[in-house]
Amino acid sequence: MNAIELNAVNYQHKEFKLNDISFEVPQGFVTGFIGANGVGKTTLIRLIMDLIEPEQG
Predict the structure, then answer these.
(1) Quick one: which of 9, 17, 20, 27 is 20 to 30 A from 55 by CA?
(2) Angle at 36 (CA atoms; ends 30, 42), nearest 5 degrees
(3) Domain boundaries, position 26
(4) Which residues, other chains included, contact 22 with Cβ-Cβ below 8 Å and sequence gap of 6+?
(5) pLDDT for the residue numbered 56
(6) Cα–Cα distance between 43 and 51 in angstroms, integer?
(7) InterPro entries per the record (predicted)?
(8) What is residue 57's predicted lDDT score, i.e. its pLDDT?
(9) What's the number of domains the chain is made of?
(10) Three-state DSSP class for 14?
């Protein structure tokens, strides 16, 4: 069973895009997001939490 699952999620805001994001996090696993400033870490978390709506997926 997955605690988090995204399938082919797309999101765009102005010049920023997330394209075809898919991944699963099994229940009980700890996952982190790392990357440079402005690459979409916070946006991805907001999509997971349903704070913003994806264009697709």
Answers:
(1) 27
(2) 55
(3) 2-48
(4) 6, 7, 8, 9, 57
(5) 87
(6) 9
(7) ABC_transporter-like_ATP-bd, ABC_Transporter_VariousFunc, P-loop_NTPase
(8) 77
(9) 1
(10) coil
- The tokens describing 2, both together, are 């997955």
Q: Which helix (H) or strand (E) holds 11?
A: strand 2-13
In a domain, residue 55? The reply is no
Count CB neighbours of 11 within 10 A: 20
- Give the Å distances, CA to CA, from 19 to 6, 30, 43: 12, 24, 12
19 and 40 in contact (C-beta within 8 Å)?
A: no
For residue 22, the number of C-alpha atoms closer than 13 Å in the C-beta half-sphere is 5
Q: Which helix (H) or strand (E) holds 47?
A: helix 41-48
Q: Is residue 54 part of a domain?
A: no
* Residue 29 forms part of a structural domain: yes
